[in-house]
């Protein structure tokens, strides 16, 4: 499997936002140096803890400071802007990065973002679906475009103003042909959106804050979508994000990854538990949809969702998880606030240089950080 990186990011509120933005940049530069395959960055307009307001702008600052790592919006919130704007900006990013771009997309789930934009009562999922349809039509089309899809509010045309002999009227197309890889983050168990992703050759990334018992539902729905259009789902296209801390000793791993009151992992999941309860999405922390809310505790979440240990312990946990949920193409390492920069960077180093090579060697793929998953037929989740 490959090794990826994802950060929301999520920082303590007392930290200076300028400092954390630069810290997050340096972490992705370090990930590139370590050999991570890709890096995704989230975006929110109205969240002090998650303070990247535009993932594309943030990632653009990294194009010329990185060499190999692919840079992915994680995600572009498509309900927040006209699809012509997003299509043109994403295409330019892809050209600047010469193809090291992954177009991560979502509707934009944060209610305060929607309220600030005056669209709290809008159906953001419908906006999202309409927007991606138009973005793809723009990339496929030529002036005057004349995009007028049924039941879609976004109409795109330059019919009356194009002057093609001087270049006016053209909307930029991406560097990658026919388009960049499109990735959607999946949070909800049994998400029907994953079926649609399979039909359209968009690739799923299962969220790091989702219990592993729900992960097979994502793969099975993705495979169903592929099957419905006469295609076979490819293991290499499924990303599974996980929260991982690798320490030089079991004690360090346990303290920094779970137990210490100053642990960034503990802070992260306290924040996520609070946010999911506010939005009534905390089912993701339950082992069954029928379980009572009283079964959810912060310590239980940390035990279930943080893979922490020495190199050998983390390798064993990843292989055991894969045995349980089925094969997947990329393990996406979730970035945390750097409470202790030395420990945070050491964990990433051990992950890239020791954990992943041992995982891939155990899978028969060689002692390498990144390897494409072997396709088995039929493909099923565990």
Order of strands across the main sheet: 1-2-3-5-6-7-8-10
Determine the fraction of residues in helical runs and give it as a percent range: 40-55%
| Weakly predicted, low-confidence segments | 377-382
Q: How much strand?
A: 5-15%
Mean pLDDT: 96
Largest sheet geometry? 8 strands, parallel, barrel
By DSSP (H or I, 4+ residues per run), the number of helices equals 12
C-alpha end-to-end distance: 17 Å
Care to count the β-strands? 10
Summing up helix and strand content along with how strands pair, one would put the structural category as alpha/beta
Gyration radius, in Å: 21 Å
Helix-strand string: EHEHEEHEHHEHEHEHHHEHEH
The outline comes out as globular
Give a short overview.
The chain is globular and about 70 Å long. Helix content is 40%, strand content 13%.
Structure description:
This protein has 382 residues and is an alpha/beta fold. Helices cover 40% and strands 13% of the residues. Strand 1, helix 1 (17-34) and strand 2 (38-41) form a beta-alpha-beta unit. The longest helix is centred in the C-terminal third of the chain and has 22 residues, at 341-362. It is globular, with a radius of gyration of 21 Å. The two termini are 17 Å apart. Residues 377-382 have low confidence and may be disordered.
């Amino acid at each position: 499997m490959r090794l990826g990186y994802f950060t929301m990011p999520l920082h303590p509120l007392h930290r200076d936002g300028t400092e954390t933005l630069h810290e997050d940049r340096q972490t992705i530069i370090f990930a590139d140096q370590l050999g991570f395959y890709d890096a995704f960055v989230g975006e929110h307009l109205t969240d002090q803890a998650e303070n990247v307001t535009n993932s594309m702008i943030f990632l653009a600052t990294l194009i010329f400071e990185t060499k190999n790592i692919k840079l992915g919006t994680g995600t572009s919130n498509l309900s927040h802007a006209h699809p012509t704007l997003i299509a043109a900006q994403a295409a330019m990013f892809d050209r600047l990065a010469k193809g090291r771009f992954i177009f991560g997309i979502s509707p934009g789930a944060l209610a305060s973002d929607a309220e600030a934009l005056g669209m709290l009562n809008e159906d953001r999922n419908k906006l999202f679906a309409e927007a991606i349809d138009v973005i793809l039509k723009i990339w496929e089309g030529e002036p005057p475009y004349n995009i007028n899809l049924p039941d879609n509010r976004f109409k795109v045309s330059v019919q009356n103003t194009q002057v093609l002999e001087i270049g006016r009227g053209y909307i930029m197309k991406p560097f990658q042909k026919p388009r960049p890889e499109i990735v959607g983050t999946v949070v909800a168990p049994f998400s029907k959106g994953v079926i649609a992703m399979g039909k359209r050759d968009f690739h799923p990334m299962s969220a790091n804050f989702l219990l592993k018992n729900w992960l097979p539902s994502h793969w099975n729905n993705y495979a169903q979508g592929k099957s419905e259009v006469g295609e076979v789902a490819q293991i290499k296209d499924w990303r599974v994000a996980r929260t991982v801390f690798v320490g030089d000793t079991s004690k360090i791993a346990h303290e920094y990854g779970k137990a210490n009151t100053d642990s960034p992992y503990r802070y992260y999941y306290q924040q996520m538990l609070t946010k999911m309860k506010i939005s009534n999405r905390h089912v993701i922390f339950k082992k069954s949809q029928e379980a009572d809310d009283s079964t959810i505790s912060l310590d239980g979440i940390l035990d279930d969702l943080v893979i922490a240990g020495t190199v050998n312990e983390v390798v064993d946990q990843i292989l055991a998880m894969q045995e349980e949920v089925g094969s997947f193409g990329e393990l996406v390492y979730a970035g945390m606030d750097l409470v202790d920069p030395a420990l945070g960077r050491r964990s990433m180093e051990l992950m890239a240089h020791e954990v992943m090579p041992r995982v891939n060697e155990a899978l028969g793929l060689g002692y390498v950080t990144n390897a494409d998953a072997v396709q088995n037929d039929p493909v099923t989740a565990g």
